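@channel sequence for tomorrow's demo:
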Amino acid sequence: MKTRFLFMVAAAALAAVGIAPTATAAPAKPVPVDKKLSFTCPFPLIGLQKLDVEVKANFEVPDAVGGAFKTSDLAIAVTVPDKAARGLNLVDAATIEGTAKAGVTLTNGDGKPLPLQLPLTVAKTDIPKTGNFTTNATGAVPTVNLPKPGKTTLVIGDFTTRLTPKKADGSFTGIGAFTSDCTLDAGQDPVLLSFDLGGEPPGGGSHDYKVSGRTELKSLGSTAPFTGKAAITEGDGGFTGTFAIDPMTVDFRLFGFIPGTASARITQQGPATGDRTTAHLGFTVGLPSISVLGLPVSGDPACTTETPVKADLVAEQGFDPATGGTLNGTYSLPAVANCGMFTSYVSSLAKSDGNTLSFTLAV
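structure tokens (generated this afternoon):
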């Protein structure tokens, strides 16, 4: 059980912002980590039990903001006490397996603490008649980029397991699957990883891109491709930028079967901002012409969203301002104004939540 937890911990570190262990951000050399902790977990029939957990891994620490943090050779072992083995044998359990969700908190530089939960799979393990036994967990830890300078820490919290003991013939025992909410024992250092990351991102400065992408408008059942240009300037671990999207045509179907066409113009509102993992955009959407069944519904050039749209995009793995990449996110489309006598009707068609936006930048 513990095993899964620690694995999730390590995974959390990476998945969230990729943490590097110990000391300052030195060259990307493997840094071994070996952490031992104890947790208290409830078991059926025998009540609370203390479990010893050991996490081993090698981490590669980036040498500057925006660098990749990698994990390899991750191994998490949980020692289950004799009393638990005896208790499981009371229900004729011969093996145990399951899943877990572990809670950790990641803080990168001056960013807000980020609570994380990561899934983990516990390998099928034989249960001895008596004595301690060890379970092991596995899972993939993604490579991530660190967006902010400064101290980065990963702090372990509590975790939950869902375990299934089985008989020798593979059938379920009388207790079936059980959930165990485990807590970290007091008096321990809960920091799994801690380090200081300094320096500006490599390849900082200004970058110009060609833009391609698409947006899905849920209320209209339409996906519209687009092209354009963008430029960003990096500094202090983040960036500011501008973008210009070419006018586009959106084909849609009302109620799933009535064809319509709209011309659309996206206009930036305020600077685009972000770092190497996220981007924040503001823009209005103009609809200078709309037709349904080939008949004009609106043709006012002033027809546009009443308020700016806000979109938060997340970079896909491998995104680098120096070479480009893809960012994805969602946004809500507000009501529109100045669309002539059909303004209220156009608003009812356009206004929607959960629209998707994908931006691909190429140098």
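heads up for whoever presents: Residues 315 and 323 are 13 Å apart (CA to CA).
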